[in-house]
Write a structure and sequence with these properties.
The protein is mainly α. The chain folds into two domains: about 70 residues; about 100 residues, Serine Threonine Protein Phosphatase 5, Tetratricopeptide repeat. Helix 4 runs antiparallel to helix 5, helix 5 packs antiparallel against helix 6 and helix 7 packs antiparallel against helix 8. The longest helix has 20 residues. The radius of gyration is 17 Å and the shape is globular.
Length: about 180
């Protein structure tokens, strides 16, 4: 249902929010449920009309995801969901630094335990971490992160994006 909501299905988003609100009422300290509820709230914010309701959903989403990470700080799934959500928020909400910190921690977790997440999620972490490092002008960290994403040998859209980012970092023969 979360994937349907991500794809823009407003009905799925409404149902997801209602279902997760019900589940978190029963299990208020379940970090996995909270992070998904937070994500669902940010998706509901995307779908809401401009006004206080839109902002209320966004702030509720932020608070749920932050609470989830507080409850489960070492859970890479929880941290990844918050990181990806925060990365995609408009910069005026000042959440990009939290996303960067989350991605840095996730890269460290993958270095210590490469199997802690599935390969596609790991590749997404390496891709977004590389973008974050690039924004911070940490070129070598960006290059290393993207290379680790390619080393997973996954045939998919992120592989192409990572390759494009690496080509931007590599000087061309004509430019040398």
């Amino acid at each position: 249902m979360h994937s349907l909501a991500e794809s823009g299905n407003k009905d799925a988003t409404r149902r997801l929010v209602a279902w997760l609100e019900e589940l978190t009422a029963e299990q208020p300290d379940n970090g996995i449920l909270l992070v998904y509820l937070g994500s669902a709230y940010t998706l509901a914010s995307r779908d809401a009309f401009i006004g206080p309701g839109k902002l209320r959903y966004l702030m509720a989403g932020r608070d749920c995801m932050d609470r989830a990470v507080t409850i489960r700080p070492e859970d890479p799934n929880v941290r990844f969901i918050r990181a990806i959500n925060n990365y995609h928020l408009p910069t005026l909400f000042n959440r990009r630094s939290i996303a960067r910190d989350d991605f840095r921690k996730l890269v460290d977790q993958l270095a210590q335990n490469p199997g802690c997440l599935d390969a596609l999620t790991s590749q997404a972490i390496y891709y977004y971490a590389g973008l974050c490092f690039s924004q911070l002008e940490e070129e070598q960290n960006a290059r290393n992160s993207w290379q680790k994403g390619l080393d997973l040998k996954i045939d998919g859209p992120l592989t192409a994006k990572i390759s494009q980012e690496l080509e931007r970092l590599t000087p061309t023969a004509a430019g040398q």
